[in-house]
Amino acid sequence: MKYFLAIGMLFLGGSISAAFAEIPNGLTGTLIVLNKNSNNASFIDLASGLTIATLPTGEGPHELVVSDDGLMAVGTDYGGGDSLTVFDVQNLKVARTIDLGGYPRPHGIQFLPGQAEVVVTSETNGELVVVNLLSGSILGSVATSGRGSHMVALGQSGELAFTSNLESSNVSVINLSRGRMQTAFRVPGRPEAITVNKEATEIWVGSNEEGVVSVMNSVTGKVTAQWSDFSWPYRVLLSNDEQLAVIPDMDNNDLRFINAVKKQEVGKIELGDASPQGVVFHPNDQVLFLSLANKNKVLVIDRKSRAVLGEYETGSAPDGIGYSSLILN
């Protein structure tokens, strides 16, 4: 499963000032950004930095996934939209809007193997919903047995899904092939950010109430590593090679870097009053992209040096971001 991408910033005394630079390594393709306040999506050409299209979404779009071939993107309309917006990336148009009215507040979303279907959380119902994107039909749902199921993570096989349940302070493990909740693990209060490694043996989860990020064994629930001093660990993402984890802290306004193998923190970028939110890696795994909701921008960050290489302008309050290899400009 792939998502991903995105010109320079200087940080002086905690403030941010623009200093545009060339895109490193000849990056090409299209960056897709969901703008929560303007209820739309920006399609940005990486080579030129131009916004080549702005397409409407439902109300309050939050999370975004992009198919491996870059042809399809899907956003969750969480802030009252109760729908999925499906984008035809190649033709720069909305392919369809899928009504999820029976499953309110759709938020976390992942492609299933084959990429014709997605699983999406219904936070209100505490359910994981399976949706066919080609027909626009709802194929079924599985109760998470958690309250406030917000985000979902999948291993590479797509057999197991993991939901972070804000209100019940646990993580549900759902066997999708059997259509049932398998187990649930207690975690520190108000878990939101979640990811798993490809083999689905490790669960990474951020807990907002206690400001910690934990790594857990997916079979036993045992915590194998934990980091503190977060305020709002908004998302957690592993690099494609699973050597690095990056964690934007929305309220502390920084991005933290963890060696995912040694389980050691290796660095941090201070971002001023920026509200960092969505984060994705470029397929080359050397560059990552971070949306700044308070600045209406996406940063380009070098993985190794942790230097900010550049920026793109977006719509209002960017959150979910994704990458398509298609060159559309």
Supply database-style keywords:
mainly beta; Methylamine Dehydrogenase, Chain H; disordered N terminus; 329 residues; four-stranded antiparallel sheet
Provide structural commentary.
- The chain is mainly beta.
- The chain has one domain (about 10-325): YVTN repeat-like/Quinoprotein amine dehydrogenase (Methylamine Dehydrogenase, Chain H, 7 Propeller), CATH 2.130.10.
- It contains no helices and 30 strands.
- The strands form eight sheets. It has a four-stranded antiparallel beta sheet with strand order 5-4-3-30, with no helix packed on it. Strands 6-7-8-9 form a four-stranded antiparallel beta sheet, with no helix packed on it. A four-stranded antiparallel beta sheet has the order 10-11-12-13, with no helix packed on it.
- A hairpin with a 4-residue loop joins strand 16 and strand 17 (about 180-185).
- Mean pLDDT is about 90; it is low at about 1-20.
